[in-house]
Structures are given as C-alpha cells and as structure tokens.
Amino acid sequence: MTEILPRQAVAPSVFRRTLARHAAGVVIVTASSDGVPVGLTATSFASVSLEPPLVSFYVDRSSTTWPSLRGAGRFVVNILADDQSETAARFARRGIDRFVPPTAWHLDAHGSPLLDGASAYLHCLPHDTIGIGDHILVVGLVVGADTLRNPNPLLYHQGRFGRFQPHE
Ligand SMILES: Cc1cc2nc3c(=O)[nH]c(=O)nc-3n(C[C@H](O)[C@H](O)[C@H](O)COP(=O)(O)O)c2cc1C
C-alpha cells in the first residue's frame, strides 16, 4: 500500500540530518528463536512506564531479524558499555552470523542470549506491538534486571559511536 505523506512533512534528508543531532544510548535486543540466537542494534530504546515496568524500542518493518524476535517468548535489552562499539556495529550488519567470535555471549537461565561486557540487562516479556509509520513499536514488560561491571554508556551521535563526558 502506498502511504501518502502529509504535505507539511519535512524531507527525509532534513529529518535525518536534524535527528543526527540527538545523542542516543545504544542497546542490542537479543532473543532465542527456536534455539537460534538473534539480535539487532537499536538506538530507539526508551523506558515507558514504572508501574508496571515497561520499556520500548522501534524496529524497522524491513528488519530480517524482527520475525524471529517477534516469535520469541521473551527478549533481552543489552544496554551497551562504552567499549562495545564493534559489537554494536556487528549487530547492525546483515549477511553475517552476529553470534560467532569475537562476539562473546552466554545463555541465561531462560535460554536467552546475553552479550558479555554489557552495562546492564533488561529481561522482558512481550507486552504490546503497534505499527507506526515504517516502524513497529515494541513494548516489553521488564521481569528481570541486572547491572554489571561497566556503568559507562555507549552513545551514538551524528553517525559515530562515542562516550559520555560528564560536566565537572
Ligand atoms: C547505531 C545504530 C542504531 C540502530 N537503531 C535501530 C533501531 O532503533 N531500530 C531498527 O529497526 N534498526 C536500527 N538499526 C539498524 C539495525 O541494527 C540493523 O542494521 C537492521 O535491523 C538490519 O538488520 P536486520 O535485517 O537483522 O534487522 C540501528 C543501527 C545502528 C548502527
């Protein structure tokens, strides 16, 4: 179906250029799809609700990973640490096995893949999905959460990965 854009909408190039000014944390959403680990890098992660604890991310309708993620009974949001930019790039690349070395990972008690070296894990059950524009909003109920050794976040800004520099 052809979607008619509202006449007032900005051009995609303007939209991209302006949104690049927005710095974002980086996560990798992982799951086990019939025993096969799947995952993709996302900057569209956000917390949604405290009670109940809900988080969200948006996935492109053209994602080849989404059908496997959607079929999984649970998923994990791996919040990346500042030394994980290569992992983030790998989980955004098509046509490769993202879970072979140098990716280091292990399974949790529920059989979900966890990426070693992440800053935190959010263990989620699927709560809702809503199609919006060319993306799908995925909402998860957080049923478990762990913070790990490295609190420093990986950020993405103007097409590059970087670190958070706090004011003195
Ligand atoms: C920094 C960065 C952030 C990204 N954020 C998202 C995102 O929020 N949602 C999304 O669907 N894809 C996002 N992508 C693209 C996916 O990681 C991946 O490239 C895309 O889903 C294609 O792989 P797939 O077919 O396995 O999904 C991002 C890529 C990068 C490098």
Automatic annotation (TrEMBL):
It comes from Actinomadura vinacea. This is Flavin reductase family protein. It holds the Pfam family Flavin_Reduct. Keywords: Oxidoreductase. SUPFAM superfamilies: FMN-binding split barrel. It comes from the Bacteria. Residues 19-163 form the Flavin reductase like domain.
